[in-house]
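Lecture 7, part B: from sequences to assemblies.

Below are the input chains for today's worked example.
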Amino acid sequence: MGVTCVCQVPVAEGKSVQQTVDMLHKKLEQLGAVKQGNFWVDCETYQATGNATGQPTKLLYVMHNSETPLSSMALFEGGPGLTADANFDVLMVKLKSHFQNAKGHKVESRGTRYRYCDFLVKIGTVAMSSSARGISVEVEYCACVIPGDCWNLMKEFMQSFLGSSTPELPAVFTSKAEGLYAPVDCMDTMSQYLELFGKVRKQQVLAGSGVR
Amino acid sequence: MMSGGPAVRVSIESQCERQVQEVSLDGLETYVPPLSMSQNLAKLAQRIDFDQSSDSEQDGPERESREPWSKPEPEEDEGAVKFQPSLWPWDSVRNNLRGALTEMCVLHDVLSVLKEKKYMALDPVSQDPSVTKTPQVFQLISKKKSLATAAQLLLKGAEKLNKSLAENQEQRRQRDFNSELLRLRSQWKLRKVGDKILGDLSYRSAGSLFPHHGTFEVIKNTDLDLDKKVPDDYCPLSVQIPSDLEGSAYIKVSIQKQSPDIGDLGTVSLFRRQPKAKPASQTWHVKLEAAQNVLLCKEIFAQLSREAVQIKSQIPHIVVKNQIISQPFPGLQLSISLCHSTGEKRSQRASPEKSKPDDHLYVLEHNLHQLIREFHKQTLSSVVMPHPASAPFGHKRLRLAGPMAYDKAEISSLQQSEGLLEKIIKQAKHIFLRSRTARTIDTLASRIEDPQIQAHWSNINDVYESSVKVLITSQGYEQICKSIQLQLNIGVEQIRVVHRDGRVITLSHQEQELQDFLLSQMSQHQVHAVQQLAKVMGWHVLSFSNHVGLGPIESIGNASAITVTSPNGEYTISVRNGPESGCKVLVQFPRSQAKELPKSDVLQDARWTHLRGPYKEVHWSRMEGRNFVYKMELLMAALTPCP
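Predicted structure of the full complex, as structure tokens:
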């Protein structure tokens, strides 16, 4: 468990999503990273029913991460989050009357996992209803849990293979009460993914054309 | 009638005239008042039988009135009552008395006749001989018949007794079978299928997943001849075990030097001990236990061979016939074999040499049994409901994995991923490493006398870790020179040495490394000893180095050196000790004592002669003393002049 940074890499001009992903893979392998299997992150949307009229319906997102295979994370956008057992999904089925599953909104990111010394790089294709919409890159520095201590190192590392697509410090770290020096949680990673998936969902009109 | 003799008075007393009605409490008797005349008449009238004819009635009283009667009743009423004088109360008494008298007279006469024999004599009556004489044949026949009847009765009785005795014995045998069956049932699981009784000797109910059925059949022993003597080990119940579980088996774990020829593999391991020829009439519990043991050994071996084939390791394990061979260390071979004998004598031997009896590591065999039982327990307990009831099955700690978002590394650390084979190989490695360490230390201790090496092994060990404390001392100077104390933690593949001064060194499994290390420590100890001795003797330490960079290079470790000077500063002893080069001792004398120093013009003052001058080597081997430190002490003492 270390500090993670999730960012989106735009699809290269004139290339498909798969080709961009392959380019990234090659860059990483040239760097000396070692492939270590696959990963997946997915997100399901649940709509809260029976709300007071006038208020927008609250959306509950239930996410899973292959890094924590026995957990399910549930969070509201910008709101509180919950880490639970895998049985949480069964619980959601039981709460069908209060939370309706918006089946068409399931987003997931699948890809390969590379390890470079203390860094774990996961390059995944973000897909919504089996159509690729974008590329997600997650970089985790396993040796540290305080973002303030290692952000510079991570940024430098990301620059070496992402180039210009290097992101800024994620908002989750700055928005915490204790600031940059609070230890990270798996919730931070999930919030970052949620943000990215939200962006991808909004992009759906544009991205649908350049793919296939 | 009476002939002489005194007269016997016979007194007759009438009863009390009046009846006692009541006796009062003070003894006063109240008599019934006598009957009045009319009452008496009524009573008498009741006695008259009016059915009888009046003639007899009338004759009766007339006749009786003529008899000599002393007092006829004056008050008799003639009209109505015809009183019969024979019915007077004393009549019967009189008759009885008269009869008795007659009898007595007759008896008296008879007795007098018998006695006197004057007028009459008694004569036996002659019997008719023809009446009493019966033929002897009849007597014989009758006797025979009666005897025969008696005999028949006796025989019948005896027969009955015999039958009952035989029935009792039969019943006892019958009861024996049932009681044996009860005992069997109290220890083993039995069930009735049709008219057969089957039992289960597998470990399936204890959590085993081995596919063997493990069914045995209970049969009744009826082939006993009641007439012959019952053998001592007769049992009415016997069990029939499956044919592949017959005999006895054990798992042999041994570590040997690697066999140079790979073609040697495949020879079936023999029994180290030949099982005793068991009689066919073995009691059932021994048979069942042996069969269960065979089944467990088969399961262990099946699990081990399955893992040996599936698990990928750097050096693959070889599974051949009934042996699994793996290499824990280079040059070493661990062989686990299942030795199963069915009790029949084998005429041919697979390999001519016998394996050494102490080759077999019993500890590992026992551990294998324990591990498989633990595995059984695990398979069982995972079916047991977890608390809370909503938690998933599995390890207790794993239930936290979800809420705490454990990642894969943490989850795998919680889950046991080691199989039986890996565990047993690790244990074998540890045992081997430990025994080799012990052997190294012991050979060193026996080879080198100065300094001495002591090893204190800890009693409490783990399957994967043991520890030993090694002390290097000089004999006689243990209190002074105790600076080299090493704690060795022997693990599975490495030995970790913790020095007293805080250094931690990790040695590999190579024997040579440990030996070299100990030798270098021993050489360092000598120099340390000089340092401690100097403190005691009052000498001053001028320089001390554990690893000198001068002089010939040692192949094992480094040489150490020390320079000490006497209390008055006149003499100096310099010691250099190396593990290979041995020790070199030089003594520095004051210039005045050196003979070969030429007189120089530069140094003219006499005081310069007190300075220390050239060095001279000491022939250490010719020095007197038991060990190095003793010699050193003597040297120091010799160089300290007496005041």
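Note for the exam: The first strand of chain B starts at residue 20 and ends at 23. Keep this in mind when comparing with the next example.
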